[in-house]
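Batch manifest, entry 17 of 40.
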Amino acid sequence: MTISSDESLNVREIHYVTKEVETTPSPEPEDPSPTPEVTPSPEPENPNPTPNPEPTPEITPNPEPTPEITPNPEPETGNGSGNQTIINNDIDMTKIEVSYTPIIYSQEVNGELVFSDISFVNNGATYVVISISGITNNSGMKYVEPNYFGDVSEWDRLGKKNSREFISPSLHSLNNDFSTSYTTGDITFKSIEDSTGRIDLGILPPGGSATYSLDVLHGKSFETGVDFIWNLDWEFSLPE
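Output type: structure tokens
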């Protein structure tokens, strides 16, 4: 292409010259090489395969043992007199099953010691004698009878010396199912301490119960607090 200009006319002319050029046609493109078929690689094997879990064996519980029963011997044919049947017996030792209150605590209410109750229940199949076999005094205070100072009202008037030295606890029956009762009144700790043998309270039938309260007479004048423990020893036995 040639570009010329005429200044007088201020015209620019553009002349196109076309030249034929022999063109050699491009050869037909060759068919591309066929794409080889790709065979997928097999999945890699797990070098450490996870073994199948062992099946959990079914556990059959052991059946309850069937008590062995000695079969009766073959019957014998008697002839005249002198024929016998031997009867074998086996009785187990009787079990005594009595539940009781193992510990009680005191609470001071208006200057008086108040205790929870002491209870017994016969859970066995036989009659049981409830007895007191002993007592231990860890208080440093002497057990005395309720009338030690005369009328029981005198306990409230005791000074600090006698308040610290003397005390009078007693067991009082609230209710009981004794088939036979051996005590009728209150059982003082002083009488238990002086006893040379056990003190029988009564015979408790199967399913029966008995309940006692603990009543304490004491002074009211203490310069310092006093902590103490009493131990009552119980005995449960078969009646004669």
